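Q: what sequence does this backbone want?
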């Protein structure tokens, strides 16, 4: 079952973001962008509470994603969503959240793509 993963930490949101940045290359991941959502909302004319602290981080394994999309462009619909991480404060804790797509869901969504299923299964075990 695909699930929403929620991790709490004592680190601040900015410390959590820096930690992700430092560790990302260990997994061949790059940080495509870090969105300060307070800034994004204000930019679009939304009045945002001064203490609003919410970040959205886009992660990517460029080579793996590119090669996967070359083989089957529809894979992009599954490759991108699991690589979005949100970070925010709640009850004096920092929360990191992301969607974890499980292998059986990949098999249901792309039953004709055995190579992607195999690669996804191997990656999921890491």
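A:
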């Amino acid at each position: 079952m695909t699930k929403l993963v929620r991790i709490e930490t004592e680190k601040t949101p900015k410390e959590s973001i820096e930690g992700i940045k430092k560790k990302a290359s260990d997994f061949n991941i790059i940080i495509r962008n870090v969105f300060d959502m307070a800034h994004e909302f204000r930019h679009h004319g939304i009045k945002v509470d001064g203490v609003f602290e919410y970040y959205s981080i886009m992660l990517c394994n460029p080579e793996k994603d590119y090669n996967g999309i070359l083989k089957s462009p529809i894979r992009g619909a599954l490759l991108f969503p699991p690589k979005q991480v949100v970070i925010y404060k709640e009850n004096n804790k920092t929360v990191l959240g992301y969607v974890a797509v499980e292998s059986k869901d990949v098999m249901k969504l792309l039953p004709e793509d055995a190579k992607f299923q195999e690669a996804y299964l191997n990656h999921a075990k890491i």
